[in-house]
Design a protein that fits this description.
The chain is 28% helix and 28% strand. With 278 residues, the chain is of the alpha/beta class.
Length: 278
């Protein structure tokens, strides 16, 4: 296992919970390979009881019965020894959607985050959907205008949980027209790989810098490493950005990407078939 990459499933939000449940089946398949409960963390949402109950019901319907919902209401909760120790002894930690700033402000610098990082290093699966996906990066998009060309000062970014490095995740991507804000983020941080994930779509990382795409949509990669020009530092607020020679890749189910080498991988049919039949 590459020490920089553990086991992750990063979901663009609105994953199917009623029909084929392809992504959540992948979560249960991988969780079943390890001992311990699947812990659903509802820190991001204002409706923890409803959200927790929905996931509890879905995972049990998918024959994963050892599911526990943990709601972190405040930083005292995030420093509880029983919560932190439970994180280290589980098979999967699942961050629900909601508000990514709520997640980071509640658990940043706490025993729960220390336990989360320890669990990740030990091979425990970490899953995040929607806001729970964005918060896993070192830097996360907090807010920004949808359906607009990239403009200066129209997105807000903040430190994330620093679970996965070298990427910036945006979610509900095609459905909310977020290409402009992802390009904006990459123009400001060209060393990172921008990853826009559609709804009911996920990237699966299994101990290496390569991820594969599952689900019904696509993943958009914005790579600014070879960018030759941007005027982002020269503009007044709300002026349009110029960005030249940025790379874009659109990757549907079965395709992959190497984050370190910054290379798209053509459809990995054998791997896809293997996982669908397992």
């Amino acid at each position: 296992m590459d020490e920089s990459f553990g086991n992750l499933i990063i979901i663009g939000g609105a994953e199917d919970k009623k029909d084929k449940c392809e992504i959540l089946k992948e979560v249960t398949r991988k969780s079943s390979k390890q001992e311990g409960p699947l812990i659903v963390l509802t820190a991001a949402t204002d409706y923890p009881e409803e959200v927790g109950a929905a996931y509890l019901s879905t995972f049990r319907r998918l024959n994963f019965n050892d599911v526990r919902v943990v709601d972190i209401k405040n930083r005292d909760d995030a420093n509880r020894l029983d919560y932190g120790n439970g994180i280290q002894d589980c098979s999967c930690i699942f961050f629900t959607g909601g508000d990514q700033l709520k997640i980071t402000s509640l658990i940043g610098g706490t025993y729960l985050l220390e336990s989360l990082k320890t669990a990740y290093k030990n091979g425990v699966l970490i899953v995040g959907t929607s806001a729970g996906a964005s918060c896993l990066c070192s830097t996360m998009i907090v807010s920004g205008k949808d359906d607009e060309s990239p403009r200066k000062c129209t997105i807000k970014m903040a430190p994330g949980l620093d679970i996965i490095r070298g990427v910036l995740i945006d979610q509900h991507f095609a459905q909310r027209g977020r290409i402009g804000r992802l390009l904006n983020a990459v123009a400001q941080n060209p060393e990172i790989v921008g990853v826009g994930i559609d709804e009911n779509t996920a990237v699966v990382i299994e101990g290496s810098s390569t991820f594969r795409v599952i689900g019904s949509g696509a993943v958009t990669i914005a790579d600014g490493k070879a960018m030759t020009h941007t005027n982002v530092s020269e503009l007044s607020p709300d002026e349009s950005l110029a960005i030249t020679d940025i790379k874009l890749h659109i990757l549907p189910k079965g395709y992959g990407f190497n984050i370190i080498d910054r290379l798209p991988l053509l459809k990995m049919k054998n791997e896809e078939d293997k996982n669908e039949n397992s």
